[in-house]
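Summary for the steering committee. The consortium agreed at its last meeting that each partner would contribute one worked example illustrating the joint modelling workflow. Our contribution is presented below. We chose a case with several input lines so that the handling of multiple components could be demonstrated. No manual editing was applied between input and output; the record is shown as generated.
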Amino acid sequence: MISNTGVGIVSYGAYIPRYRIAASEIAKVWGAEGEGMGGGLGVHAKSVPGPDEDVITISVEAGRYAMARVPWVDPQRIGAVYVGSESHPYAVKPSATILAECVAACPDLTAADFEFACKAGTAAIQTCMGLVGSGMIDFGLAVGADTSQGAPGDALEYSASAGGAAFLIGRDRVIATIDETYSFTTDTPDFWRREGAEYPTHAGRFSGQPSYFRHVTECANRLFKDRGTKASDYTYAVFHQPNGKFPTRAAQTLGFTKEQIKVGLLAPRIGNTYSGAVPVGLSAILDVAKPGDRIFAIAYGSGAGSDGFDITVTDEIASYDRAAAPTVDQLLAHTQDLTYATYAKFRGKVRFQG
Amino acid sequence: MVQTEGIRYWRDMRARYNLIGRRCGKCSRVYFPARSICLDCHRHSIGKMDPYKLQGRGTVSTFTIVHDGDPRFGVQVPYILALIQMEEGPRMTAQLVDIDPPQVTIGMRVHTVFRKIGTVHTEGVIHYGYKFAPDSMPHLRA
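What follows is the complete predicted structure of the assembly.
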């Protein structure tokens, strides 16, 4: 899927809730070895949504941050709004319509919710690219956001976190062009949640090699081949980060250095934000990127598939008003630690009967 | 199952999401929520009350800490309810979040955040709207 149509990122915004729970705090409750769990997964703390936060509130904050940085964009010119998530607050009733209303884009637009485990946000970006590239719309707003849950005591509980980012896709004054996107997709049931089930189920160690690593490396290698590039041609790389360990190993296999993945690797500090993972990592990179920088991004969604993006930062970023909204670094600087008891209360793991 | 409890919010949702009030075309006084007649200009304001978007910034006029509140906010107890003096003039009553009760002070600068307000029951419509957070938290530039 070669883009090459001048389509790219016009603006972006990320949002991460301020609450954190340390891996050691979770381990203490379940009799696991705290440092070992955090160190093994490469997740030392994860973000937790407040009791009044969900995918819709995260999407709205991220979407408003994105729009605030481009006051020249009339929101009425947004022709599509898509929210990708596996934790939409409603089973039936779109998150995207509330976001569209909150950025004043209604009513002349199409909107829908996307779902593809952890890559629903990048799938939303690709859809917007298609609509903009074909000339059907001027701008599309794509969000990847989640407030994911792991069953109490499950390994997922140490990583499943909350956050998201919004990308305004268009053709005018793009701060970064998306030169190509490629997706590698197979039917691989490594992680799922059945209708009505409270927590997801996963295939344990099989979520690694035949799932994450296969799809990420196949997608990356095809992108390298199509573009005629290699790891050293890129300034930054960001990978889906279900923990700190997987993306680090995938990057190493593909020839990327620690320096190239450092800025976009947030899992050690905030855990796995699922559909928000690559979008938030990419936001952290765009927070510091300079004209000419090249960014390599590979998302992964269980079930399974990988979306790859070859991105080039343009001169436009020099005049882009990044300071109009908080950077990822600023969001990470304001945190409050929770005890397991408060975390369990906030996340509905203990039920309030008041 | 028919459930109409969410319907009465429909008309106000856009205003509540994006802080759309009204401004008197005669004296410029701003109202939130919207009013169709200015309290100062009375009949002279008829037909001149234009939609006006508030920027979502203000200061805490006064506040109270709720320890025994509405059961729907039970998980959030103790929570802060504040009267906010908006820059454009109106005063708004709203929850103050992302701050611990002992840190709240009268006069502190705050901004709106988009949050879940509540739901009548677990299968009901979820209501969203504004709350306020202290300016020490990351926010949009003024």
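Residues 55-142 of chain B form a domain with the OB fold (Dihydrolipoamide Acetyltransferase, E2P) fold (CATH 2.40.50). The CA atoms of residues 38 and 114 of chain B lie 28 Å apart.
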